[in-house]
Automatic annotation (TrEMBL):
This is non-specific serine/threonine protein kinase. Residues 98-454 form the Protein kinase domain. One of its GO terms (molecular function) is ATP binding. Gene3D superfamilies: Phosphorylase Kinase, domain 1, Transferase(Phosphotransferase) domain 1.
Length: 481
């Protein structure tokens, strides 16, 4: 069996132009100068000895660090290789269908590998958006022989055996229901062997969010979020909450301007295990229900015996991207929680800061949001869900800050709103619609697609969907089949 060998890279020697060139001039020889030269020579010898010892210690420390780093990398690589071998042996016939290449992702509940689909031509490939473009990738025939089709890659998601069986079944069912949806990663198939489950998904070429988000123009942002909201509109039309919208779960390729929404491990159907919440009542009814809870004199302390009933709600998601109703334990969460998360991504791109929110727990997350919106608006948001928000942090203002001011400050452009372009003002207006504290006033994914901001750059998307012509160097990491 053939094994691909990594190509070696030759490192050309070069001359360092910064190396100084010194000319030594002999001074006139006298007795005084000879004595001075001997004294200086002794001092120079001592200095050179000290310098050599210092350099030797520094080199030893550097070699030790490099050795430890290389050992860690080797151990990690060996562990990945072992896991890939173990996965291939866990399923009968796996090696005849797929050839693992490398690990491309690792999370709390699963690990994702890139693999070559060896049996692509034997099955229905309606999931493959680029299947009609493979003809132009064919290798010209040699001596009358047939051309070779470009290899097709898939993403194999290995779900950990510690995951709940209900969670695994829920994710697979939701992916099956969302097949054919625009910009949503479809499920090709799934396998189970004893307690191990793997899902086969399409592999999408994409770039690291941190490598391109600072270079995005306003039209680039519009194209990015139009693709993301197209996916969300399809998901929400099926009454499904994704619950984990973040840059790493939206695989985007800037060259083709195409993105796809992935990872439905935390997704759930809207209304599942929910109970009525005050946020869905009309203002008069909500005020009447809140009146007994609001006391004129609030003691700034915790009661020894708290008689308030406990509240349980789904708070799943990634810190920094969870909506305020999730933090306030709303018992009737809607698809609007995903829209808030998209707003955080837009704020991240406009401010050129990632991550924008970096809280360690729910309390810090509330304080971060309150820093932007102010203590007064945060208190009103808490009352929507029957909660109280109180803080004695002196730096937390009552009114907060505007999005315009935050973006101007974060990009070092002064305080004047005149420094913002008309396109930026349109993007900030759209941002305020996404990051609305009241979920009932927050824009929906369907409404977002009609917003003027997402219509920017429509005339520049003629090349969307074209496969990238960049070469694939992943074959260097090919695992022996």
């Amino acid at each position: 069996m053939a094994t691909a060998v990594p190509a070696t890279r030759r490192r050309d020697a070069f001359w360092n132009e910064n190396d100084s060139f010194r000319i030594h001039e002999d001074a006139p020889s006298t007795e005084d100068t000879e004595m001075n030269e001997e004294a200086h020579q002794e001092e120079d010898d001592e200095d050179e000895t000290a310098e050599q010892e210092t350099e030797s210690l520094a080199e030893e420390a550097q070699e030790s660090e490099e050795s430890e780093s290389s050992e860690d990398e080797a151990a990690s690589s060996n562990q990945v290789q072992y896991d890939m071998e173990k996965l291939q042996d866990a399923f009968p016939g796996f090696r005849q269908k797929y050839r693992l290449i490398k690990r491309i992702g690792e999370g709390t509940f699963s690990t994702v590998y890139k693999a070559q689909d060896l049996a692509y031509d034997k099955y229905d490939n309606s999931w493959d958006l680029d299947r009609d473009n493979y003809d132009r990738w064919a290798v010209p025939p040699i001596f009358g022989g047939g051309g070779l089709r470009k290899p097709t890659y898939v993403a194999i998601k290995k779900i950990y055996v510690t995951s709940s069986p209900n969670r695994i079944l829920n994710e697979l069912e939701l992916l099956h229901d969302l097949r054919g949806c625009d910009s949503v990663c479809p499920l090709i198939t799934a396998f189970r062997s004893t307690d191990q489950v793997v899902a086969i998904l399409p592999y999408f070429r994409h770039a690291d969010f941190r490598d391109y988000f600072r270079q995005m123009t306003i039209p680039d942002m519009a194209i990015y979020f139009r693709s993301l909201f197209s996916a969300l509109a399809s998901v929400h039309a099926h009454h499904i909450l994704h619950r984990d919208i973040k840059p790493t779960n939206f695989l985007y390729d800037p060259s083709s301007r195409r993105g796809v929404l992935v990872d439905f491990g935390l997704a759930e159907r809207e209304g599942y295990d929910s109970k009525p919440c005050l946020c869905h009542d009309d203002p008069a009814t909500r005020k009447a229900k809140l009146k007994p809870l609001i006391k004129p004199e609030l003691k700034k302390a915790y009661p020894k015996e708290d008689t308030r009933p406990s509240r349980r709600a789904n708070r799943a998601g990634t810190r920094g991207f969870r909506a305020p109703e999730v933090l306030f334990k709303c018992t009737e969460q809607s698809t609007k929680i995903d829209v808030w998360s998209v707003g955080v991504i837009l704020l991240t791109i406009l401010s050129r800061r990632f991550p924008f929110f970096n809280s360690a727990d729910d309390v810090e997350a509330m304080i971060e949001i309150a820093t932007i919106f102010g203590r007064q608006r945060m208190q009103h948001a808490a009352l929507l869900h029957g909660c109280m928000f109180e803080t004695n942090i002196p730096s937390l203002g009552r009114s907060g800050y505007s999005f315009e001011g935050i973006i101007l400050w974060s990009t070092s452009r002064g305080d004047s709103k005149d420094n913002l372009s008309s396109e930026e003002k349109l993007a900030i207006e759209f941002l305020s619609r996404c990051m609305e504290l009241d979920p009932s006033k927050r824009i929906s994914a369907k409404e977002a697609l009609q917003h003027d901001f997402l219509r920017l750059g429509l005339d520049e998307t003629s090349s969307v969907g074209e496969p990238s012509e960049a070469g694939d160097d992943d074959e260097m990491d090919m695992l022996k089949a």
